[in-house]
Write a structure and sequence with these properties.
The chain is mainly β. It has 1 helix and 29 strands. Strands 16, 17, 18, 19 and 20 form a 5-stranded antiparallel sheet that branches. A hairpin with a 5-residue loop joins strand 16 and strand 17.
């Protein structure tokens, strides 16, 4: 038998790895005090349950460091934040550390270096920055800054020099300068962006390449769009495109917006509607124009959504149904096509797809 050439052997091995490649999907089951683990088939988007891990308190927001080694969770009822080590081969997580927080941590994120854990506190009206050790542990002490009531999210820009905190009650977006050397935050000038009355800025997401930020507006049932000044680190309404309704014209029921995300290529934006129980879709064209794609039915009370790293699928946590909706994103139009529904505990709060295998 003739030996198989080395190049062909390598190609066959890569093809085999690609066929078996899977990512991990984590879901906070808030009422079940656990984080569910699923494995995702990258080609089909289908999920396979892979177990769960109990948490000391109700898990809410989740995030992962840039190198995808560690998972971080807001444990709301315990008033703590926790870190977990990710097994890249299986997606399983192991608890590493817990740090005492204040009140109910509404949101967690890391900075772009992965050295700092950022958290926002809805009831306490504060934000915190905790150091993340090389081993994934969270420092006991954090840098705390007072903002205002109902701080709902905390996000850094692409340069990692500026930090933004939307507040639903005072209807302001706080703007800070961020020093990644020591984790310090200082108010920018101006320190806040005043938003329209009745909008309630909740979550914020930056476009991957353009100087634009999108905001889900909880009370306004709308998508806000802002121009980002990368030198000053400040936001201003995007002229002529600053607000888009997330609801059909003929809908008159109650509704509030939840999470939002932008596809990795920046072409599409999706916002959760709680009440209408849908995702509102928008296209962001090369000329900076925002176009509505309409709404796509999802599970009851879509609390959070997450787009996979390849930008092909979106998963939606239905807090009111205990189900996780899986949708395929049409590459050309941005339309969502639901292809599966999964049991996700008592009250799925957050969903996060992590590229755990290369």
């Amino acid at each position: 038998m003739r030996p198989i050439p080395a190049l062909l052997t390598a190609c066959l091995l890569l093809a085999s790895l690609s066929a078996d490649a899977a990512d991990s999907v984590y879901v906070s089951d808030s009422s079940g005090n656990r984080i569910l683990v699923f494995r995702q088939d990258r080609e089909t988007g289908e999920l396979t349950p892979a177990g769960d891990i109990a948490t000391e308190g109700s898990p809410g927001a989740l995030c992962v460091d840039p190198e995808r080694k560690y998972l971080f969770a807001a444990l709301r009822s315990a008033m703590t934040v926790a870190s977990f080590r990710i097994d890249p081969a299986t997606g399983q997580i192991v608890h590493l550390s817990t740090a005492v927080a204040k009140e109910d941590p509404a949101y967690v994120a890391t900075d772009r270096t992965g050295r700092w854990l950022l958290s926002a506190y809805y009831r306490a009206g504060q934000i915190a920055v905790h150091r993340i050790g090389d081993d994934g542990t969270i420092s006991a002490e954090g840098n705390w800054t007072e903002t205002a009531d109902k701080a709902h999210a905390i996000v850094v820009d692409r340069t990692n020099r500026f930090l933004f905190v939307p507040h639903t009650a005072p209807e302001k977006i706080f703007q800070f300068r961020f020093d990644a050397r020591n984790g310090q935050v200082t108010p920018n000038d101006p320190a806040v962006v005043e938003t329209e009355s009745g909008t309630g800025p909740r979550h914020i997401w930056f476009h991957p390449t353009k100087d634009v930020a999108f905001v889900s507006e909880e009370q306004g049932s709308s998508l806000g769009a802002y121009r980002f000044d990368r030198d000053a680190g400040t936001l201003s309404p995007l002229e002529g495109q600053s607000r888009q309704s997330t609801l059909p014209d003929d809908y008159s029921g109650r509704n509030s917006c939840s999470d939002l995300e932008v596809t990795p290529d920046g072409r599409f934006v999706y916002v959760g509607n709680r009440g209408h129980d849908s995702l509102a879709g928008f296209a962001f064209d090369d000329d900076g124009r925002i176009r509505s794609l309409g709404t796509f039915a999802t599970e009851k009370t879509p609390r959070s959504l997450n787009i996979d790293p390849a930008g092909r699928f979106v998963y939606v946590a239905g807090q009111g149904s205990g189900q996780l909706a899986a949708c395929r994103i049409d590459e050309a139009s941005g339309a969502l096509n639901r292809f599966a529904t999964y049991d996700a505990g008592i009250a799925p709060w957050w969903v996060l797809v992590v590229h755990t295998q290369n």
